[in-house]
Design brief:
Layout lengths: L5 E6 L2 E5 L16 H16 L8 H17 L7 H16 L2 H5 L16 H18 L6
Antiparallel strand pairs: 1-2
Protein name: Lipoprotein
Keywords: Signal
């Protein structure tokens, strides 16, 4: 699996593929979203991700992905998410929204054989994995899982 197609969540047959690249969790995203709003934002990310036609997004597709992740960041997370899961959310959202297309293109493909988020600490990688687990559990019903 490439660093650019890292599974964010699986809810039944629906698989969310995220484009996780370098970033540090920034914060500032709301912490009081309803579960329905949050999972709706996740569903929008899934739809946008699934609309990428090739193995690598075009610049226009990248901008749409950034918008979908930006919208998810604007929605924020529900109350009750752990600090670890919350940090993973911030790492993922900030990774996508902060990276310009030219920099993103450098990470397309699996050139080094690694499945990680370049430039992100191992602890943040673990937090992102915890967020993926949270996402799967929290949104399974709404996403048909």
């Amino acid at each position: 699996m490439t660093p650019f197609k890292r599974p964010l969540a699986a809810a039944g047959a629906a698989v969310l593929l995220g484009l996780t690249l370098s970033a540090c969790g920034g914060g500032g995203h709301p912490t009081d979203a309803s579960k329905k709003e949050f999972c709706g934002g996740v569903e929008d990310v899934i739809t946008t991700t699934n609309s990428v036609e090739g193995d690598e997004p075009t610049e226009a597709e990248w901008k749409k992905l950034q918008e979908a992740y930006g919208d998810l960041g604007d929605i924020g997370t529900p109350k009750g998410i752990s600090d670890t899961e919350r940090n993973g959310f911030e790492v993922i959202v900030d990774a996508i929204t902060d990276l310009d297309y030219d920099e993103a293109k450098k990470s397309f493909g699996d050139k080094d054989g690694e499945d990680n988020i370049p430039g992100v600490s191992k602890d943040d990688e673990k937090d992102a994995d915890k967020f993926f687990d949270y996402l799967t559990e929290t949104c399974a019903d709404q996403l048909g899982g």
